[in-house]
Specification:
By secondary structure, the protein is mostly helical. The chain has one domain (48-279). 80% of the residues lie in helices and 0% in strands. The chain has twelve helices and no strands. Helix 5 packs antiparallel against helix 10 (195-244) and helix 7 packs antiparallel against helix 8 (162-173). The longest helix has 50 residues, at 195-244.
Length: 284
């Protein structure tokens, strides 16, 4: 009799098929959190296809330059291969930088929507939800700001403070504006009613920086055009003289002294290109 009672008790303790299915099936909120991804903005968003394009462009450009200076196909070929890999690195780095700049613009739009919602009487969390819905009218579901807002909202629903979530976002983007916003927000979170003022202050700072960048970009546009012309003109002159001068530059391509002159000229050309890219890339 005791054995039967013990067996019946054990059967009651065993979960049924429906309970197992319910335990294995995650809630919609957990499914949404699994779909959300944590983005490292220090890494390039370039895909494999983008890298192929970067490689092809760099390979073709360096091949042409090497062939103009040396007229040696094997050397130009291997130089083009090296240039292709270098261009992958440079272009990927530029793409990552452009992504961060675009995210700062999106973050500015988020602060503007957040400020409007907080002035309407919403607290920080509800204002973030409202801002996300507003930004969906401007950006797609796959945009960085929508993904980050979703992560922040999900994190807060899992008892993670907003200040920690904004600090994590600041560390991943490397943007000083978001770092300043997160540090100040962590001090007054839940202690002060001045959150709206901090949002407006951060928005104003980002707006001023964007205006300065726009002015500098306008001033540097003509300078960049002049630099590009100055870099291309030596190649054009060498092509014209080499193919229309009938042996005028043969000494450069056939003698030891000519090879040395070509190598020094190529080094000066590469150094000039590197310096021009460095001087025209100014961060605010």
């Amino acid at each position: 009799m005791q054995d039967l009672i013990r067996k019946g008790y054990d059967m009651m303790r065993k979960p049924g098929p429906s309970s197992n299915a319910a335990a294995k099936t995650p809630s919609p909120q957990k499914q949404k959190q699994k779909k959300s991804k944590i983005t490292d903005y220090t890494k390039s968003p370039a895909t494999f296809f983008d890298c192929i394009i970067y490689f092809a462009v760099g390979c073709a450009a360096v091949f042409i330059v090497f062939y103009i200076f040396y007229k040696i196909l094997p050397l130009s070929f291997f130089g083009g291969l090296a240039g292709g890999f270098v261009n992958i690195y440079l272009s990927a780095k530029s793409a990552a930088k452009k992504r961060v700049r675009n995210f700062r613009l999106q973050f500015f739009d988020m602060l503007e929507s957040l400020s409007v919602s907080m002035r309407a009487g919403n607290n920080e969390f509800n204002a973030l939800k409202s801002a996300r819905e507003d930004l969906k009218l401007l950006y797609s579901e796959k945009s960085d700001i929508i993904i980050e807002l979703t992560n922040i909202i999900n994190g807060f629903e899992n008892a993670i403070p907003l200040s920690r979530l904004f600090s994590d976002l600041a560390n991943r983007t490397g943007l000083e504006d978001i770092k300043s916003f997160a540090s100040v927000f962590s001090v007054i979170e839940g202690k002060s009613g001045k959150s709206n003022e901090i949002v407006k202050q951060t928005q104003r700072i980002i707006s001023e920086k964007m205006e300065i960048e726009l002015e500098m970009e306008t001033l540097l546009t003509s300078a960049k055009s002049e630099v590009n012309i100055m870099l291309v003109m030596p190649l054009v002159i060498l092509l014209i003289v080499g193919y229309m001068g009938e042996g005028f530059l043969d000494a450069i391509y056939t003698t030891t002294v000519g090879r040395i002159v070509s190598t020094v000229s190529l080094g000066i050309f590469i150094l000039s290109y590197a310096m021009s890219m460095k001087f025209t890339d100014i961060d605010v």
